[in-house]
Amino acid sequence: MFTRLHISLHDELRRVGERFRDIVRGGRIGPGKRFDRGLRADNLVLALPFLLIEDAPFPGALEAARRMALANASGAAHFLLQDDELDGDAEPSPARATLSDLCLMVFSRTYTDLACEGPLLWQHIDRYLGEYEAALVWERTVLRSRTGRSVVGREQLETALRHLGRRLALLKSTCAAVTLSAGSLAELGLLEEALDRFHAGYQLADDMDDLEADLNAGRWTLPAWMLACALDRDAPGEIAPDEARALMATSGVEESVLGVIDGEYAAASGAALEAGFKAAAGFLERLRARASISGAWRSRRSSLSAALDNRPRTDGGTPGAGFHAFGVRGDTFLYDAASGLFLEVDPAAADMHAAGTSSPARETARFNYGGAADEAAEELERLTLCGGFSPTCVDAWPPDVGAAELAPITALSLHVTTGCNLRCGYCYLPTGRPVSAMSLETARRAVDLLMRESFGSDRVSLIFFGGEPLLERDLVLEVASYARRRGRDAGRSVALHMTTNGTLLTPDVAAGLNAAGVSVMVSLDGGASEHDGERRDAEGRGSFESIARNLRSLPNDMRVGARATVTPGSTPLPEIVREIVSLGCVSVHLAPASGLELTDAFAERLIDGFEELAAEERAAAARGGRLRVGNFAEALRMLDSAAPRLAPCGAGARYYSVEADGSIQVCHRFAGEEERSVGHVVSGVDRGAAREQLAALRSFSEACTSCWARHLCGGPCLHDVQASPGRTTGRTSPWCRVVRRVLELSMWIYAGIPDGRRREVLRTAHDDCRPERDHSAAGVSPSAERSARGNEAREEERGGGGCEDGQACERVGAVDAGHEEGHTGE
Question: Considering the entire predicted model, what is its pTM?
Fold first, then answer.
């Protein structure tokens, strides 16, 4: 929120996104291709006009900034169209040419109509257009040709960076318009330098992210040429993509490129600050910090991969400090908290790691392991250099929650009713609330809010919740249809989910939900005696038999998952899972009841149960079978992406919950707490109020600073630290012990899946509980979209955090991103 002009950057950029989509509506020129994909609140292209007018206001500045942001969105789309053809990702076509011309026309016309020093402004814009065209020509004729080797030397590199920077030259039109209108033209040169330097760093960082894909496609970017020259290769295409990560580290190229990236970002923010534009300088510093986190994470992984590739898989090497050693059933592992990598080692290496490489420690290890200790010690010393890559920027904890204000909202849960036909003993919702149902108008407004606030996103999720949502079955089906239509209009695929107690999931109801593309999670605690102990109706009768009958009658093509709430009186976890799977559920997520203070004894029972289940899951996965336990499935997918989790979930950032009366909460678990409301579907989300609630996590998260699992767990749940802080806070809490052990067991399962089967196992884990037919707006199934794990990883890395499907999460295993609980869940 800007103080001088009282600008809400989030709201302004959302409006820009809506207007831009109107301009290019129908501009899909290939399956899933959209050119509003860069419309994000952290995109400098859109934010720059608003950042500049904060420090250089002039009459009519806000309206001018809105028009410039729209023009910049069009200019960026023109560049993306050109870039896709340059990269070989798209073939020239009449449709692409028409859209490209339209975008450039909108850009030009908007700046032509701006009420400022017209002739002088156009002199600058003509110059920027020339720089932009020259940069594209240089890239096509020099960088992308075999002569590209000539641009990687020290002197030539500086010239190459300036060419890369001018790919964003169109954006400098904003700088000229603002400085002319505000009477500060003397500062224009510094602002132009800031943009050139920023985009050079940005382009290098983007090329580093895509290096392996670029090599695989034969694209010759500057980092690829630098690597080819360091290895004395004639062309980047001669480098195997799967070798790129290790080669970048061993050649020293990665460290060099990361240094250049940081230097360009620093120069950009410095130039903006020197020009007196503090808001823009601060924004650039934030982008610099994010690039630093991304670069340090990538560097750690590359260096570690290089070290591990240079030794046999089974020896005792351990790459320096920062590792967590653990064992599972005789197998020993080391997990690197700074990179997300983990490796299997022999016991000698684990002991050497724990004790250090001093002479006394070596003597003790030699006594225990003989000659293997010397080999482990030598390997430790040889790989110690990797310890120096532990990035302080990643290790900084707790993470800043400020970015949540600008995050697009990609998921909403709808409490379609507060009523329920069960009276579960451990329900977390307030008792005695009057029963109310969500109106169709409120539900539609919630969907409209989701589409409006998800600018820049290809995919959104809507979760039907309660109470028991099937008490409002007709409303659910009508809203599902409406959400599909709105998704098609907005160019988004829509994932629909429901949590239900299952008592009303009759064959006809199930068929209707399946046809509508609604995936279903049933709350089921195990066998009859287990389940009926807590889940009874208003007359005190158990609900197991009706649920089991419904599950046995599901349509053949419908996959349903289950969520089981466990208490100290529950039977062992493996028995719960086997009972539920026998009823036809394809996966089971296990979670203690909300608000339950875990005792040490109960925690140990949970750990024992998860260990037994892990052995069964590992054996099944090794044969290529499905993962049944949702806790492990979610953890494996996250480990596979190796991206740090910077928040426990998306609540208050990408995910919100709408109550039956239309009021909005940061999470479904705060339902009924009017004092915590952060908006209404009519007025929208109060991002400032949401941020204040998230800020409460910081003090609780400080206890996680030294925990090895902090970037897999993301810290404590906001609801838990408010309702039962003893459950989740402190590294020694019973809950945290369960969380960490589930993560260790998940690594053990992952390591036991043969490389050739791992992709299929993870893919089927994605597909579980999803309707088989394709209901996406773009003709791409949700499971196929989720398979783009590289994009998901970068999204997490940027601080989006949280629920992968936007589903509200109960974080048993601390990594669940796709399971809900609600009134029916407890």
Answer: 0.76
